[in-house]
Write a structure and sequence with these properties.
Elements lengths: L1 H5 L4 E4 L8 H14 L4 E6 L6 H7 L5 E5 L5 H7 L6 H14 L3 E8 L9 H7 L3 E6 L4 H4 L15 H11 L5 E4 L1 H4 L24 H4 L1 H5 L6 H6 L23
Parallel strand pairs: 1-2, 2-3, 3-4, 4-5, 5-6
């Protein structure tokens, strides 16, 4: 991470899998990024099932954004998707409260798919009031989730572009709404795997590890869609310092 900071990194996001599978190590990483590297923004993506009050009391001050995965506000739909066993919405509501108590910006991540693209989520989003609501069109990456031979098979979840547009039209008036179609999502992220190799999802094999060749050399082999990054709003108010008090989420300059 120090190599990345030296190369110009301003924001670090921890995702998985589920980052809280090793909660203490995650906390140490979050603290290191903020306290030692002094990054502008430290965030993480979680399903919320393993986040505790104790962890937030210890490490919440070092976290700018917590993104919670929530694909539906209907528990039956969540079960179909594979999100929990009927208690996911309670988890989302609890984490929303905890984030506000700890001054952490709340973000909701929704994967729009075959089971939820017709759902009207407006009332629930207005109730939770995330500062950012990312809505991703479900993406199939052949080597990761593209068939019965991969660890997961997302092909039954796929929707057409016009179906994603239908979902977007229904929710685009929400101030926090940030849609990401397959077109802008596929290569607009700089992703590192557990070996610290940049990933070229669906385009090419991973780069060599930054521990082996350094950041600048590894980046030469990355296909990064900078236009897509800008189109999806990749730069935004990502620091807690952008907030004014715990209850100011509704007053943010979106």
């Amino acid at each position: 991470m120090a190599l990345l900071k030296d190369a110009g990194m301003k924001k670090m996001n921890f995702a998985g899998g589920e980052p809280f599978m090793n909660a203490e190590f995650l906390g140490q990483l979050v603290r290191y990024c903020k306290e030692t590297l002094k990054l502008e923004s430290v965030s993480l993506v979680t399903n919320g099932s393993k986040v505790t009050q104790k962890w937030l009391d210890k490490y919440g001050e070092f976290l700018d954004i917590m993104a919670i995965s929530c694909d539906s506000f209907d528990e039956a739909t969540n079960i179909k998707i594979g999100r929990g066993a009927g208690n996911h919405l309670k988890t989302v509501t609890n984490l929303s409260r905890l984030c506000k108590e700890h001054g952490i910006k709340l973000k909701i991540n929704t994967v729009v798919n075959r089971y939820n693209f017709e759902e009207d989520m407006n009332a629930n989003i207005e109730k939770i009031q995330p500062f950012r609501w990312k809505c991703f069109q479900v993406l199939v990456v052949p080597e990761e989730n593209g068939s019965e031979r991969t660890l997961r098979d997302a092909s039954p979840f796929v929707i057409e572009d016009h179906e994603f547009d239908l979902f977007c039209d229904k929710h685009k008036h929400q101030e926090s709404f940030v849609p990401e179609s397959n077109k802008v999502m596929a290569s607009s992220y700089l992703l590192l795997d557990e070996y610290l190799r940049f990933l070229n999802k669906g385009v090419a094999k991973p780069t060599k590890s930054i521990l082996e060749v350094g950041v600048a050399e590894a980046l030469k082999d990355v296909f990064w869609d900078e236009d897509g990054f800008e189109e999806r709003g990749g730069i935004y108010e990502w620091s807690k310092s952008d907030c004014v008090g715990e209850a100011s989420q509704g007053d943010l300059d979106w």
